[in-house]
Amino acid sequence: MLLLALAAFGALAQAERTLHLRLLYAKAFSALTSSTRARRVGLPHFSLKKPSNIRAWLALRNGRSWLKTSRNQRVCDTVVALSFYFFIVAMVTVAVEFFKDPGPEGVAFPATRLHWELLVWWGLVSAFLLRYMMLGMRINARYRNASVLLTEQMNVQLRILATATHEREKRERLCVSSKVLDLAQKLLKEFDSPHVIAAGISMDPLLYNATRVVLFSALSAALSELMGFDVKLWKLKGI
Questions:
Q1: Rounded to an integer, what distance in angstroms lies between the CA atom of residue 137 and that of residue 139?
Q2: What are the Cα distances from residue 204, in Å, to 23, 42, 62, 135, 197?
Q3: Widest Cα–Cα separation across the chain
Q4: Residue 30 forms beta bridges with which residues?
Q5: From CA 134, how far away is CA 208, in angstroms rounded?
Q6: Residues with Cβ < 8 Å from 222, sequence gap 6 or more?
């Protein structure tokens, strides 16, 4: 039993580490279009004023898709999906046991070792699941590139206006880059979707905050019943 618990905890921790690696990739990607941040992390700067740069930038942005093809990434998705299913099953079980009639013996939940083990695992998996969703929310923020493309397009337009009339070839190249940037914005707006963890769970702030409030409200009610005073875990900061 102890070995099984250690293996499960190791899988949950490894999944969190894999999501951290995805976040590092997203941070590195978001630094490419900023000369200051790119220099700070030792990466090349993509000014997006050339179609070739825009093409390379879009290919790197699509890296979060082929990043999942490795074994560790697939294992991470599986672990996150299983943890979500366990969270749902455990939450329903705890709710049923908590509100069940104690009967003539008057034994209320939690009364057995199995009940306490279920509560411990539910709390542990819930904490990891919130971490997964928080990491996914931060990954999503790094891939919101509408402002980056608009800024680059504005810079290209300003370069076009600053180009002399006899520099016809340079002006045409900049016009092509402006059109490619406009098409890239439309393409990302049409096809882009939030980063999701396995089982289609979207990693967005609304779902994260709702799950956080529901989870900690349920834990607060259970702890308040056990301890005899109000416990408000959902007001804790940094969780």
A1: 5
A2: 14, 30, 19, 10, 11
A3: 96
A4: none
A5: 7
A6: 94, 98, 119
List the pLDDT tens digit at each of the 239 positions of the chain.
Answer: 678 888 988 999 998 998 898 888 888 888 888 888 888 888 888 778 888 888 888 888 776 666 666 787 788 888 888 888 888 888 888 777 777 766 566 566 667 788 788 888 888 888 888 888 888 888 877 877 777 788 888 888 888 888 877 788 888 888 888 888 888 888 777 766 545 544 445 555 555 566 666 666 666 666 565 555 565 554 554 44
Q: How many residues does the chain have?
A: 239
The DSSP secondary structure of the chain, one letter per residue, reads -HHHHHHHHHHHHHHHHHHHHHHHHHHHHHTTT-HHHHHHHT-------SHHHHHHHHHHHTHHHHGGGSHHHHHHHHHHHHHHHHHHHHHHHHHHHHHS--TTTT-PSS-SHHHHHHHHHHHHHHHHHHHHHHHHHHHHHHT--HHHHHHHHHHHHHHHHHS-TT-HHHHHHHHHHHHHHHHHHHHHHHH----EEGGGEE--HHHHHHHHHHHHHHHHHHHHHHHSS---GGG-TT-
In terms of phi and psi (left: phi > 0; alpha: psi -120 to 50; beta: otherwise), the region of 228 is: left
Q: What is the pTM assigned to this prediction?
A: 0.70
